[in-house]
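re: that chain from earlier
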Amino acid sequence: MLDVREIDCFYGDVQVLRGLSLHVQPGEILCLLGRNGAGKTTTLKAIMGLVRVRAGTISLDGRALSDMTAPEVPRLGLGYVPQGRRLFAELTVAENLEIGLMTRGHGAETRDRTLGLFPVLRERLNQRAGTLSGGEQQMLAMARALCLDPSVLLLDEPTEGLMPSMIGRIRDVVVSLREAGVATILVEQRVDAVLSIADRVCFIESGRSRETLAAEAVRDRPDLLQRYVGVGAV
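^ sequence. v structure.
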């Protein structure tokens, strides 16, 4: 289990997260919802060691992550797909995947299993990442993270700017990961794209985790979506 307890995070002197807590179990999809600037992306960065935690703890199966450096965290099995994908544009698809494989020393078997989730990438292995379509780049970013063979996957706005067919493919992969026992934390502004696959929803407001509910309960509470996200019923 990934357990985040009462963490405080700052950018300089500005406090962004204030006593934020959440947890996610193996084979569970937890969606973080909130307005822009609420602290969702910072939460993911804190888990990955990209933002220092000044108070509170983050642990994976009882092992403390809070004091680890950013390069150390992925080696424990945490995959991260940041907003904007952050691919190596001049490298090929195969080379981008190889970077993911090297993180934990995985090889051809892991790569083949990952490419099975994104068959189009198998046809693009020698193509430079920067020449892929937006949807293909998102698939590659996810595939690179999955080459770690992660137990926990963090996704930040994975459907941003994608066509409905690509959104459907991303959703299918997330569901298949749940069936394989991977825990997923998903930040997404498109509420309609995630509520149908999420198990629980954590609402974040002003750097605090305000309420965490079963996704089906959220679908019956449009007032919560209006309050925390600014959208009506979905």
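The radius of gyration is 17 Å.
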